[in-house]
Specification:
The structure holds 2 protein chains of 2 kinds. By secondary structure, chain A is mostly helical. Chain A has one domain. Chain A is built from 16 helices and 2 strands. Classes of the chains: A mainly alpha, B alpha+beta.
Chain lengths: 378, 643
């Protein structure tokens, strides 16, 4: 009896697993997706087609996927981390090559009826690989400089490939998400400082390597009024929409900026604007609070995990979620340059929904298997 | 129980600390977002609401219908007809290139139009549309409508274009309209004028009555989407159409005068001349022909470069309204003014006899009379009826340039009249100071001689000759020419006023006996066997004129080029000179003699002899006028369908 409990905690039953799923979190996610459908219904001028209905359906499927993922034992993810990562890198290379041939930005890979965005897989894969890596290191090793080099390569490889596409938003997310993981994993603070100094130093070089439209976006972000009809148009119109919403908004289906098409990309990257114009600051705060709840849930899952892999995965997913929300909303409010980052579960679009729900599934899985014993694989 | 692996406690502790730090950072950043929301949605909400409204709501002006122009009998001179035009709206040219490219495929716009469109769109604010093409046919309209889904911002608009039913017959009076220019905008802040479809009077009555004809703008508030398509109408205020007007012109008389002028010059190389008929009581201009005319409809639909160049290069100057802008030496017609000046100044009286030996010598210069043999001794009536140059050399010399100038000013010379048409010339009434200023040379006796016969520096417009004749015919009243008979708002009754029998003009304070003498002189020009135009006692069919229509007149032949002694010696006739060097033929007349009502002035450019060329035109037009009697007979007024 004793030896049994010493060797491994008793395997939990299926009912217990279901019980351990964070149903409150599921409810919050569903509320967010519901808000997404409402906003998309309005963006289509009061119609379920072409976005709102599909969005709700897609969420239903993604929710199922999330629950399945949550019930998979973390050791499976531990062993799948590297294969998944390698696969995502290969797909990214494939997309880059296809992009070269097709000319211009290429982010999608079409396989049969499916469109795959490899950068979305890469986001999750990087989290898994880093979590696995640091799972096998003790605190002292994690703090050493030499041990920090492999994770850097793991992060920068997909970042480089994504930059080539070019997809500044995703690159930023992978980089910052990776940095958050390294931080909690125990990398020394001076290394972050050093990296920050390096980044600032490299900024002019980066600017010179940027595509014309990216540079324009960054410069326009710094001073949107200098070209109100060109590149600054998106930011200006979005700020007008949000600002004119006021405290209580213009009312459901009464947003003029979005219904009259002054808003660009109103159903994807600027869905937050569409929603906030009609629901005002009250609506915006409710939505942000729901996201904040997701983050708090993520942290509590990470802190309660008995294994390091689980902690890192849960935190990595939380960081990814935060970056999505922050970059997107800060962008539409004119706090960040316009980069293509959707608002998770609200913006129209399948791949981001699937990858976010998949990541949430991993996070919930950490809670379900919070006391599992994981091998110390290298 | 060993729950943790060796060393896991250490790293989990670090993880917890750092995770909490990270979480704290995230929460801080989330609150920054909330702060930004507060800034945008609470602090700056008002400003952004205004901007959103400006985006959404678009006030578009509605062009009112331009007032219609009729002649005094109710016949239309300028009306409006529907005009289908393609308009294009875009947000300061955003995405317009593609649409213009497609429009080019459908309508064949051409390089110049494409450039103009793009310029206009980039300049215009708030989706103010630009005109792509006007006067579309049904086929073009349907092709545009068919392709509408591919043409964002394009719409068909029904506007109005000016139509001038009688084209060149009234072109100089009615004028035409064109796009609003920067000069037109000066001093007018009517927002209507900013409309790209707006037309503005450029010439003639269209210009002089512009502010009456234009009307007031209506406005429609519309909600537009980002490509400028109108989503719905929010509010509409109808504009007020411009006033309709009756002109003093009698279209039938105008046509008669025009035909008569053309017929007289049937054999001439160029046909160029003018007829002005004026009511001497009211000043109404009953006919004002300037030949050749032009077709104002060409301007209404948009004139091409070649058409414009053709008009400009024509030696007969069709764009020039010669009745008011043509300046000619008045020649012998001016003698009536000199006679009146001499009488008024006391230089001569009714009995003064001046002798004519055929020429007068001044120093070593000979001033010839047109009648080489000389007229002998003549009084003022004889001087006028014989048009004796010698008589007027001496009369002018006795009167002096200053007194002549005084009288000429009373009769309307050297100044722009109250007619109000754009482009009227003042002519030139020379004076001592004028010559000193212009040539820095003092006035000479010879200048007074030349002025006495209406030559030299003296120039006048045909309108001024008509005014002079009218003021002599009405007994010395300061009558002013006038083109506007009646004006009424669109829904009000438009009808000519009841006839006036007495002039309301003020008196010029000229002795009626002196005027009677001049009138008698002009009577004898026609009705005395020795008169210079005695042949005009008979009408065009060589029948005696009805005594009720007897009239008085004065002929004039104005030198364009000085006749040299050599030419005089060689006996070169006018017919042997090139057209542009021949004398101008002038004729002024009024009638009926018993109770004058109408005055008429005729100038035939390079028509050689006033009595022979201009005289018959003046006689026929004046007879026609007296027969029609447009000033007293309002029963010919008919309301037309468009009224």
């Amino acid at each position: 009896m004793t030896s049994l409990s010493l060797g491994a905690p008793a395997a939990i039953g299926f009912g217990e697993k279901i019980w351990r799923i964070n149903w409150g979190l599921v409810l919050v996610l569903t509320l967010i997706a519901g808000i997404g459908s409402v906003a998309l219904y309005s963006a289509a001028g009061g119609h379920f087609e072409p976005w709102a209905a599909k969005h709700a359906m897609r969420y239903g499927i993604a929710l199922g996927l999330m629950l399945v993922v949550a019930l998979v034992h973390p050791k499976v993810w531990l062993s799948l981390a590297w294969p998944l990562y390698i696969a995502s890198l290969l797909l990214l290379v494939a997309v880059d090559i296809a992009g070269k041939i097709g000319m211009g930005a290429q982010r999608w890979l079409v396989i049969g009826p499916m469109q795959i965005q490899p950068s979305e897989i890469a986001k999750v894969a990087v989290i898994l690989v880093l979590a696995r890596y640091y799972h096998g290191l003790n605190r002292e090793q994690a703090g050493r400089f030499l041990y920090t080099l492999p994770p850097l390569v793991v992060i920068l490889a997909p970042v480089g490939l994504v930059m080539v596409q070019p997809d500044l938003g995703t690159a930023m997310m992978v980089m910052l998400g990776g940095a958050a993981l390294l931080f909690v994993a125990g990398v020394r603070l001076w290394m972050f400082l050093g990296a920050a100094v390096c980044a600032v130093g490299c900024l002019p070089v980066a600017l010179s390597f940027m595509h014309e439209y990216q540079r324009k976006r960054v410069l326009t972000f710094l001073d949107p009024d200098r070209d109100p009809l060109g590149a600054g148009y998106h930011i200006t119109q979005s700020k007008i929409a949000i600002g004119s919403g006021g405290l209580f908004g213009k009312g459901f289906l009464h947003g003029t900026q979005s219904s009259l098409n002054f808003l660009p990309e109103k159903q994807t990257d600027f869905i937050f604007t569409t929603f906030v114009e009609e629901w005002g600051m009250v609506g915006a705060c409710v939505l942000l609070a729901l996201f904040a709840l997701v983050l708090i849930w993520g942290f509590s899952i990470a802190l309660r995990s008995q294994h390091h892999f689980g902690r890192l995965v849960a935190l990595g997913v939380t960081a990814m979620m935060f970056l999505y929300v922050f970059i997107n909303t800060a962008m539409v409010m004119g706090l960040l340059p316009v980069v293509g980052v959707p608002l998770p579960l609200v913006s129209n679009g399948g791949t981001a929904m699937v990858s976010v729900m998949f990541a949430c599934g991993l996070m919930v899985g950490v809670n379900v298997y919070r006391d599992a014993q994981l091998p110390l694989a290298r | 129980m060993i729950r943790f692996r060796k060393g896991d406690g250490e790293r989990s502790g670090l993880f917890t600390r750092r995770a909490l730090l990270l979480g704290g950072t995230q929460l801080t950043l989330m609150s920054a977002l909330a702060g930004r929301l507060y800034q945008l949605q609470i602090l700056e909400s008002q400003r952004f609401s205004t901007l959103a409204e400006e985006n959404r709501v678009n006030v578009r002006l509605l062009a009112p219908a331009r007032g219609l122009i009729f002649d005094r009998t109710g016949q239309p001179l300028a009306i409006n007809r529907n005009n289908f035009r393609v308009m294009l709206a875009s947000d300061r040219g955003r995405g317009a290139e593609v649409v213009i490219e497609r429009l080019d495929q459908i309508l064949n716009l051409g390089e110049a139009d494409r450039g103009r469109l793009l310029r206009e769109l980039r300049r215009s604010r708030n989706f103010q549309p630009a005109v792509v093409r006007e006067n579309l046919g049904w086929e073009e309209v349907s092709r545009i409508e068919f392709n509408a889904p591919d043409l964002p911002g394009v719409f068909i608009d029904i506007g109005q274009t000016r139509d001038y039913p009688d084209g060149d017959l009234t072109s100089h009076i009615v004028g035409y309209t064109g796009r609003v220019s920067d000069d037109d905008l000066a001093g007018r802040d009517d927002p209507l004028l900013q409309l790209p479809t707006m037309r503005f009077g450029k010439k003639g009555v269209e210009r002089s009555l512009e502010d009456d004809l234009r009307g007031k703008a209506g406005a429609v508030q519309v909600e537009v989407n980002a490509v400028g398509r109108i989503v719905r109408e929010l509010d509409r205020t109808e504009g007020q159409p411009g006033d309709n007007v009756l002109l003093t012109i009698d279209l039938d008389l105008q046509r008669f005068a025009n035909d008569r002028l053309q017929a007289q010059q049937a054999n001439s190389e160029h046909k160029s001349g003018t007829v002005v008929v004026m009511d001497i009581v009211t000043g109404d201009i009953l006919a004002m022909v300037s030949e050749p005319g032009f077709d104002p409809n060409v301007f209404a639909r948009g004139i091409s470069q070649t058409e414009w160049k053709e008009l400009l290069d024509d030696p007969a100057h069709p764009l020039n309204n010669k009745a008011i802008a043509g300046v000619y030496p008045p020649g012998s017609t001016y003698k009536v003014a000199v006679a009146l000046a001499a009488l008024e100044s006391g230089a001569i009286d009714a009995g003064t006899i001046l002798s004519c030996p055929g020429f007068i010598e001044l120093g070593n210069i000979k001033f010839h009379c047109w009648w080489k043999g000389g007229h002998g001794g003549l009084n003022v009536v004889g001087g006028i009826s014989n048009s004796c140059d010698c008589f007027f050399y001496q009369a002018a010399q006795r009167t002096g340039v200053d007194k002549i100038g005084e009288m000429a000013a009373k009769l309307g010379f050297g100044q722009v009249s109250a007619l109000g048409l754009p482009g009227e010339a003042p002519g030139n009434q020379p004076s001592r100071s004028w010559k000193q200023d212009k040539y820095s040379v003092p006035w000479q006796q010879g200048d007074t001689f030349n002025l006495g016969i209406g030559q030299g520096y003296m120039t006048a417009t045909p309108l001024q000759l008509a005014i002079m004749t009218a003021r002599i015919a009405n007994g010395g009243y300061d009558v002013q020419p006038n083109l506007l008979l009646a004006k009424a708002a669109p829904r009000e009754e438009l009808a000519p006023p009841s006839p006036r029998l007495k002039t309301s003009a003020s008196s010029l304070r000229i002795d009626p006996r002196h005027i009677a003498l001049v009138q008698e002189g002009m009577n004898q020009v026609i009705n005395s066997p020795s008169g210079t135009a005695a042949q005009l006692r008979l009408d065009a069919d060589n029948k005696p004129i009805d005594p009720a229509f007897h009239f008085a007149a004065k002929t004039g032949t104005a030198q364009v080029k000085r006749i040299t002694e050599r030419e005089r010696a060689m006996g070169i006739t006018q017919e042997q000179l090139p057209w542009h060097l021949r004398h101008h033929a002038l004729f002024v007349c009024f009638g009926p003699i018993d109770n004058p009502r109408y005055a008429c002035a005729v100038v035939v450019e390079h028509g050689m002899a006033g009595g022979a060329t201009a005289g018959p035109i003046g006689r026929d037009v004046l007879l026609e006028t007296m027969k029609r009697d447009p000033s007293r007979r309002v029963d010919r007024f008919r309301k037309t369908a468009s009224l």
